[in-house]
Amino acid sequence: MYVNTHLPERGIEQIVNRIFATRCITRADQQMFMSALLSKDALSATDRSHIDRVFDGLRQGLLKVVD
After folding, report:
1. Alpha-carbon dihedral of residues 29, 21, 64, 61, nearest 10 degrees?
2. What highest taxon heads this organism's lineage (predicted)?
3. Residue, of 60 and 40, whose pLDDT is higher
4. What is the DSSP string of 16-58?
5. Which helix or strand (DSSP H or E) is residue 59 part of?
6. Which of 16, 42, 55, 56 could form a disulfide with 50 if both were Cys (CB 3.0 to 4.6 A apart)?
7. Cα 28–Cα 18–Cα 16 angle in degrees, nearest 5
8. d(CA 36, CA 42)
9. What residues does each domain of the chain span?
10. pLDDT value at residue 37
11. Within 10 A of 50 (CB to CB), how many other CB atoms are there?
């Protein structure tokens, strides 16, 4: 399956803010973050920190995955 690793222009921070505001993450968001982390393109330390925060929230049960 092909997943587009290009991050939206509105930025990771805004997506993360939406995720925590709604306490829900879509499968598409989750796949985008995983692809960004696994891609050869460099992420800034700030973007990596935001993505890590989301995955920590998932592990802690703070976020719900929705389709």
Report:
1. 120
2. Bacteria
3. 60
4. HHHHHHHTEEEHHHHHHHHHHHHSSSPPPHHHHHHHHHHHHHH
5. helix 45-59
6. 16
7. 70
8. 9
9. 12-66
10. 86
11. 20
Q: Tens digits of per-residue pLDDT, 5-56? A: 455 545 889 999 999 999 999 999 999 898 888 887 778 889 989 999 999 9
Per the CB < 8 A criterion, the answer to whether 6 and 46 are in contact is: no
Q: Is 15 helix (H, G, I), strand (E, B) or coil?
A: helix
Residue with tokens 């968001």: 29
Report residue 60 CA to chain centroid gap: 15
Can you give the pLDDT at residue 2?
Answer: 40
